[in-house]
Design goal:
heterodimer, A: alpha/beta, 2 domains, B: 391 residues, 9% strand
Chain lengths: 392, 391
C-alpha cells in the first residue's frame, strides 16, 4: 500500500516539476485564469448599457412633441442625440451607425390628440445589434404608454367619467413584470458568472492537454509508466491531482473573491456548488487525458482546444435556451459536462437553489465523469501497451 | 526575373510545407468548413420559441383562460405546468423547469367586471436576458390587447361612437419598423458576426506560424537561401499560398454558407467581398508580423490566442463599446475584427456603398500597412544577422 502511495506522490511531484519548468503550461494554468477572470469580468464593470443614442424626427414641433422627446431623453435607456425635421437625414445617421434608432413624430400629432384622434409614432430600429435595439424599443414603448395613459385619462373625463373611474379605466388588466434573480436586468450579471466559469474550464483543458501531449512530444511516456509502476489508474490519479487541487482552489477564489469584486450576488448552496464544480473539474481532466493522448505535439492541443471555447459555451444553453437548439446540437450538448454544469450553476449561485433542486444535473454530470474516466483509463492502458515488454 | 523565380521557389516550398504539415492544412482548410457549418447550425431555429413557463391561476375564470390562450398563441411561450401557489412557482424556477411564471389573482375577473383594474404578475427569470426580453415584450403586448378589448366593451355600453372608442383605447400607438432583421432572427444576428471572429482566429493562428516555425525548426536560413536573399520573395512567397486559401474560405462564407442558411445581403456582394478580403489581409498580416517578432511558435500561438479569444466579446457586437471601461475599449481597437464589424454590417445588411464604409476600410488598411512594414523591417534585420554570421 505504501508503495502505491509513494508512486502516486512521485507522479504528482513529477507533474508539478514539469509545470514549473514549462513556461507555456505555467502561463496557461497559473497566470491566464486569474488575469482573464479580472480582464473579462471587468469588461462588464458598469454592468449595463445606458443612453443608447437615438435621433428624433419631429414633424410636429409642438408642446406634445417636445414633452415626448424630453421623456425619451429622461429614460435611462435612451439619449436623444439629435432632433431633426427630415427623415432622409435621420436615415443617413442611422446608416452611418451614429444613432441606433429613429423616432418619427408625425405632423399634427398634438392637434390630432386634442381632437380625439389617435396618432402613430414610428420607431425605426437598427436590429443588427439586438441589445441596443431592445433598449430603444422598451424606452419608446414606455414613453408612448405614459403619454397614452395621460391622454386616455383626459378623454375619459371628457366623456363623463369621474377622475377615479378614469384612472382605473386606463388599463383594466395590468401586467406587473417582476424580474427575478437579476433584478436590475444587467448584462454584466447575466454574462460574467458564465464567462468566468468558461475561462476556468478552458484553461484547465488547454493546460492539462498540453501536459499530456508533451509526454508524447518528448517521449516521456515510458518514464511515466515506470514511475507509476505501469498502473494506468495511478497515472490518471497522479497526473490529475495537482490540476484538481489547483482548479478547486481557483473555483473557491472565483465564488468568493471574483463574485465579490464584481458585485455578483451569491444566493445558493456552497456545498452543492462544490460537489458540482468538482465533478466538472474531474470530467475536464479525464476528457483532456483522453483527447490529448492522441496529439503528438503541445501546439496541437493548444490549437484544437482553442476553437472549442465558443461552441461549448454557445451550445450549453447558458445564452441561447437549450430547447431552442436543433436536435442534433442537443445530443452533442448533452454529452458535454459544461451543459449540466451551467444549467445547475446559475440556479445554485443566483436562484437560491439547493442540492435537491439540482439533483438531476448532479447525476448527469456524475455519469459523464464516470464514462470519461473509464475511457481515459482504457486509453492510458492502450498508450502504455507498446512499452509492456520493454524494460521499464 | 531572378526575383520572380525566387518568389515561385518560395511559393513551392510553402505549398510543400502546408501539405506536409497536418496542423496547417487542417486549420486552414478543414476547420473553417466544419466549424462554420456547426456555428450556423446552432442557430438553425433562428428565433427563440416555446420558452417553458408555469401558471398559478387562482381565478380559473373565462378571462384568465382567455389570457392564457393569448400567451400560448404567441408561440414564444409554452405553459409546461400549472401550480397552486406562488411558492410552487418559485420551486419550478429553482428546479430549472421554467423561465417565467404567471400569477393570476383569485379576483381577476370579478374586479374587472366591477369596473376596477386587476394585475397579473409576471415573474421573469432575468438571469437570461434573451428569454426575459422576449417574455416581457410579449406579455406587455398581450395585456395591452386584452385591456383594449375590455375597454372597448365598456365604452360601447356607454354609447360612445365606435370611431371615438378606438382612438380612446390607443391614443398614442407605436409602429416599430425593425430594419435589417425584422423577425429578430438569431441566425441572422449572431452568425455573420461569429463566423468572421472565428475566421480571424483561424487566419491568425496559422499566420503566426509562418516565420516563427522557421525559427523554431531552424529552417530560416534555408528559407533565405531559397529566396535568393530577397525579402520580397520571402514575404510574397510565404504569403501568397495562404492568402489564396483564405480568399477561397472568404468566398465560401459569402457565396455559399451565408446564402445557404438564409443570410442574404441587402445590396451588391462585390463591396462586401472586397471588404471581407481586406479584413482577411489585416488578420493575416497582423499574424505574420507577430510571427516575425516572436520566434517560438508555441509562444506566438499563445499570443495569437490572447488577442483572438476575446475578439468577439470585446468587439462591441453583443455588448456596446461605449458601455465598456476605457481600457477595454482601447484593447478592442487592437483587433481587426472590431473595425471590420461596423463596416460589414453597413455593407452587408444595410446595403451601404463602399464610400460609406470608408473609415472602416481605412482602419483595416492601417493594420495591413503597419503589419507589412513591421514584418519587412524585422525580416531585413534577421537577414542582416544571418549575413553577418556567414560573412
Amino acid at each position: 500500500m505504501s508503495q502505491v502511495i509513494k508512486k502516486y506522490i512521485n507522479i504528482i511531484k513529477r507533474e508539478i516539476s514539469r509545470i514549473s519548468k514549462d513556461k507555456n503550461i505555467f502561463m496557461m494554468i497559473i497566470i491566464v485564469p486569474v488575469f482573464y477572470s479580472f480582464f473579462y469580468g471587468s469588461l462588464y464593470y458598469y454592468k449595463t448599457e445606458k443612453d443608447v443614442l437615438i435621433c428624433v424626427v419631429d414633424m410636429d414641433k409642438s408642446e406634445f412633441s417636445r414633452n415626448f422627446i424630453q421623456r425619451l431623453d429622461a429614460n435611462e435607456l435612451t439619449k436623444v442625440d439629435v432632433v431633426l425635421t427630415n427623415l432622409t437625414e435621420a436615415k443617413e445617421l442611422l446608416e452611418k451607425m451614429e444613432v441606433h434608432g429613429i423616432i418619427f413624430i408625425p405632423p399634427d400629432s398634438e392637434s390630432d390628440l386634442k381632437s380625439n384622434k389617435g396618432i402613430t409614432i414610428k420607431a425605426y430600429l437598427n436590429t443588427t445589434r439586438f441589445l441596443v435595439s431592445n433598449d430603444i424599443n422598451k424606452s419608446v414603448n414606455q414613453t408612448a404608454f405614459s403619454f397614452g395613459d395621460d391622454s386616455k385619462k383626459i378623454l375619459f373625463q371628457k366623456s363623463g367619467f369621474s377622475s377615479r373611474a378614469s384612472e382605473e379605466m386606463i388599463e383594466p388588466l395590468k401586467v406587473e413584470n417582476k424580474p427575478l434573480f437579476n433584478t436590475l436586468e444587467t448584462y454584466g450579471d447575466f454574462l460574467i458568472p458564465g464567462l468566468i466559469v468558461l475561462i476556468i474550464h478552458q484553461t484547465l483543458m488547454i493546460g492539462m492537454s498540453e501536459s499530456m501531449s508533451k509526454e508524447r512530444e518528448e517521449n516521456t511516456l515510458k518514464e511515466l509508466k515506470r514511475i507509476s509502476g505501469g498502473s494506468a489508474l495511478l497515472t490518471l490519479a497522479g497526473k490529475g491531482t495537482f490540476y484538481f487541487l489547483l482548479y478547486s482552489a481557483y473555483s473557491f477564489f472565483i465564488f468568493t473573491v471574483i463574485f465579490s469584486v464584481f458585485k455578483i450576488r451569491f444566493e445558493g448552496d456552497y456545498a452543492a456548488l462544490s460537489v458540482l464544480t468538482m465533478l466538472l473539474i474531474l470530467s475536464a481532466i479525464f476528457f483532456c487525458i483522453l483527447v490529448s493522448s492522441f496529439f503528438k505535439r503541445k501546439i496541437i492541443s493548444l490549437q484544437v482546444l482553442a476553437f472549442s471555447s465558443y461552441p461549448i459555451f454557445l451550445i450549453s444553453g447558458y445564452i441561447f435556451p437549450f430547447q431552442s437548439l436543433p436536435a442534433g446540437i442537443k445530443i452533442i450538448a448533452t454529452a458535454l459536462p459544461t451543459t449540466p454544469y451551467f444549467k445547475a450553476f446559475i440556479r445554485l449561485t443566483q436562484m437560491n437553489a439547493g442540492m435537491p433542486d439540482v439533483y438531476p444535473e448532479l447525476v448527469h454530470l456524475f455519469m459523464i465523469a464516470v464514462v470519461l474516466g473509464v475511457l481515459a483509463f482504457a486509453r492510458l492502458k492502450m498508450v502504455y501497451k507498446p512499452f509492456r515488454n520493454q524494460e521499464l | 526575373m531572378a526575383s520572380e523565380t525566387a518568389i515561385i521557389k518560395v511559393i513551392k516550398r510553402e505549398i510543400k510545407r502546408i501539405t506536409n504539415n497536418k496542423t496547417i492544412y487542417l486549420l486552414s482548410i478543414f476547420l473553417p468548413f466544419f466549424l462554420f457549418t456547426f456555428l450556423a447550425y446552432i442557430y438553425n431555429e433562428g428565433v427563440v420559441r416555446q420558452i417553458p413557463i408555469a401558471v398559478c391561476d387562482l381565478d380559473k375564470s373565462e378571462l384568465s383562460h382567455t389570457y392564457l390562450q393569448y400567451i400560448e398563441s404567441t408561440g414564444s411561450m409554452k405553459i409546461v405546468n400549472y401550480v397552486d401557489s406562488q411558492d410552487e412557482l418559485m420551486d419550478e424556477f429553482r428546479k430549472g423547469n421554467i423561465y417565467a411564471g404567471i400569477y393570476i389573482p383569485s379576483d381577476l375577473e370579478s374586479v374587472i367586471k366591477k369596473n376596477g383594474n386587476s394585475t397579473i404578475i409576471f415573474y421573469n427569470n432575468t438571469t437570461n436576458l434573451i428569454t426575459s426580453n422576449i417574455i416581457y415584450r410579449d406579455a406587455t403586448v398581450i395585456s395591452k390587447k386584452i385591456s383594449g378589448s375590455i375597454l372597448l366593451k365598456k365604452l360601447r355600453s356607454k354609447g360612445i361612437p365606435e370611431h371615438n372608442i378606438l382612438n380612446m383605447i390607443n391614443p398614442v400607438s407605436i409602429e416599430v419598423q425593425s430594419l435589417y432583421n425584422p423577425y429578430y432572427n438569431y441566425l441572422i444576428y449572431l452568425v455573420p458576426g461569429l463566423i468572421p471572429a472565428m475566421l480571424q482566429m483561424i487566419i491568425m493562428l496559422v499566420s503566426v506560424l509562418l516565420i516563427s516555425s522557421e525559427f523554431t525548426h531552424k529552417t530560416f536560413n534555408e528559407l533565405l537561401e531559397t529566396a535568393n536573399f530577397s525579402l520580397l520573395a520571402v514575404f510574397l512567397g510565404k504569403s501568397i499560398p495562404h492568402i489564396l486559401i483564405h480568399t477561397a474560405t472568404s468566398l465560401g462564407i459569402l457565396g455559399i454558407l451565408y446564402p445557404a442558411v438564409g443570410i442574404q445581403p441587402a445590396g451588391s456582394l462585390l463591396p462586401v467581398l472586397l471588404f471581407f478580403i481586406c479584413f482577411m489581409f489585416a488578420s493575416f498580416f497582423l499574424g505574420m508580423a507577430i510571427s516575425v517578432i516572436i520566434h517560438d511558435q508555441l509562444f506566438a500561438t499563445e499570443i495569437a490566442l490572447f488577442i483572438n479569444t476575446p475578439a468577439f466579446i470585446f468587439s462591441g457586437f453583443v455588448y456596446p463599446l461605449w458601455a465598456m471601461p476605457e481600457a477595454h475599449t482601447i484593447f478592442s481597437q487592437l483587433m481587426p475584427f472590431t473595425h471590420f464589424l461596423d463596416g460589414f454590417l453597413k455593407l452587408y445588411f444595410m446595403g451601404a456603398s463602399l464610400s460609406e464604409a470608408g473609415s472602416e476600410f481605412f482602419k483595416l488598411g492601417i493594420f495591413i500597412l503597419t503589419s507589412i512594414v513591421v514584418t519587412l523591417v524585422l525580416l531585413f534585420h534577421q537577414k542582416r544577422k544571418y549575413l553577418k554570421c556567414h560573412r
